[in-house]
């Protein structure tokens, strides 16, 4: 398989890093990684074909192998090695992952393998056969099989928390890791999206350098009033819908099965071949994958936006609920357009609710940003404080911004109307014939969620007077 190529990138990039001693910070974020890639590209000369060369078939394996031994013994060599090598330590630290600017933690190995498979196929003019197995297929197949005796929801994930999102160094998982941690899944999705994009470049188009490919996908600016609407191109907040549109037409169960057969052949793990429950395990597992990563929106967890702990004991909700209340935050009054911006808004709201209002936590169940993400408030299982007298019968979801006279972007509206709803109903948290209301319908002292937004939601399915 093409993992040889990846090995080659690691070594060659590492080699250049060692001898040029560039001022690469060792922060585990995507910017540092891209910066380091860029430095290597500069050292290598401004030749776009260089990227292809890094990522193409490695025909000088022995040279690479001897470079590696030299490099591994050099104390300054660490960044690429650590950045690409995926492991989970005994104390639950996940390595080989970086924090992307959109607030998502991504494993680099499946990302780079996807890009590599795409580049190989594009330059050789062949179909990208290895793309799915290398990015997601192997991971999914092995996690579903190895954890057959656990409930399907336990066979995927978990997510985790960084020590500090501005200066990320250590990423700790919430619970024992599966083979398919969230970061590995997200890296796999990004790898398949970028790999497919590269395969589809016309043969005559020049292939951008690796750093440009990564920048185009991870680093972008959203415009006020537009958010993700009408934004052409492939960018990281759309990873769920983009990966779904690429993979859903395939028969995933067959694809995973074929991947496992290949894994068995290459790694000689006979237990896979003789296991009769494979079909069932894959079917259940893929169903869970679709529910968790495609039907639900990506929700930025509390630790990621820097939540303070709640004061006092949470009161559990009794699920499923039958109401969904829609709010706007009013202040912050501007829609937030990036992860740092939305996270700051979340912290400000929590501070206001806890310190000025004396509540135990941020009041909302969830908050929708204009950066393409939903932010976790008190979450699915805890009674919030959003709609007087009705907090225990419904979720309270707020849009960041003042929607008295303007609307959130279509994309943000869809995050609630389509994604949160299908996630909540599919996950048994909300009954399917639930009642959707604006905050103003439940109490008579507010115009929340604003005239414009209220008029919008009054046309949604499930809205009731
Ligand atoms: C790496 O360094 C150690 C100790 O300095 C040495 O024993 C070993 O042979 C070196 N390995 C290689 C592959 O150079
Ligand atoms: C919210 O928007 C309305 C209508 O544009 C405006 O009158 C009001 O001052 C705004 N409030 C804040 C806090 O921005
Ligand atoms: C929702 O469905 C349940 C069960 O079918 C029914 O008892 C309930 O009255 C329905 N609620 C509404 C608001 O239609
Ligand atoms: C609305 O306000 C009036 C007067 O303040 C109050 O008596 C009444 O109970 C309120 N109705 C609701 C639904 O809160």
UniProtKB/TrEMBL annotation:
Q: Which SMART domains match?
A: Ami_2, PGRP
> By its UniProt entry, which InterPro entries does this protein fall under?
Amidase/PGRP_sf, Amidase_domain, PGRP, PGRP_domain_met/bac
A GO term, aspect molecular function: N-acetylmuramoyl-L-alanine amidase activity
Looking at the record, the residues that make up the Peptidoglycan recognition protein family domain are: 297-443
Q: Which residues cross the membrane?
A: none
Q: Which CDD domains match?
A: PGRP (cd06583)
**Record's signal peptide:** 1-20
GO BP annotations of the record are: immune system process; peptidoglycan catabolic process
Q: Sorted alphabetically, which keywords does the UniProt record give?
A: Immunity, Signal
Q: Which superkingdom does the taxonomy of this entry point to?
A: Eukaryota
**Which residues belong to any copy of the N-acetylmuramoyl-L-alanine amidase domain?**
307-450
Family statement: Belongs to the N-acetylmuramoyl-L-alanine amidase 2 family.
Protein name (record):
Peptidoglycan recognition protein 2
